[in-house]
Design goal:
Largest sheet: 5 strands, mixed
Strand order of the largest sheet: 3-2-1-4-5
GO molecular function, one term: DNA binding
Keywords: DNA recombination, DNA-binding, Transposition
Protein name: Integrase core domain protein
Number of helices: 8
Shape: globular
Helix content: 40-55%
Function: Involved in the transposition of the insertion sequence.
CATH superfamily of the largest domain: Ribonuclease H-like superfamily/Ribonuclease H
Order of helices and strands: HHHEEEHEHEHHH
Distance between the termini: 8 Å
Radius of gyration: 18 Å
Strand content: 15-25%
Length: 227
Amino acid sequence: MTISFKGAHFPKDVILHAVFFYLRYGVSYRDLEEIMAERGVDLDHATLNRWVSRYAGLIAEAARYRKRPADRSWRMDETYVKVKGEWVYLYRAIDKHGKTLDFTLSERRNKAAATKFFARALEVNGLPRKIVIDKSGANTAGIKANNKMLKSFGCPIPIEMVRRKYLNNIIEQDHRFIKRRIRLMLGFKSFAAASSALAGIELVNMIRKGQFTTGLCPFQQFIQLAG
């Protein structure tokens, strides 16, 4: 997947530097505007906002297909995010070692949303041996729906579902990095902007976990993933 920077009024490296810095560190757009000005780049916070909204999600989507293989024992949970004053749901899955498998923002927390999320995670990560969830009825129904789909495709062994909350402590702890960064963002103005920014935050967290190329610093990995 090639990400186009055609039409941008700044060089690609400047855009990527600003986007990565915002996603990785606890700065506001106005703080970042000052930081970029100190480096001789004159732009406003609205431009930075547009860059994150436009590019963060695209780079994260490209990176989904380039991370290292994960363990087949998964942990899945969702956490809450506020967009325009309303709560929406960030579905997340990691393996038993804490490596991020997938994530998606949803306006609903129901069977349809869970089914879609599990199908999305399976597409990139392959079949897990088991998925650990809490006692959510929606997530239970989502796994059952995917097992039914897999059976129709000839898969003889269903995904084992384990409903034990204490086994999901690892993903609840993993939520904290994402939530800590979100708290400094002063809220999201639209679902699309929230989805892109959150995908970017998840990506830099995956880079921090060492899920991509070794031997490069985090920013160099980010540039490489952007193509």
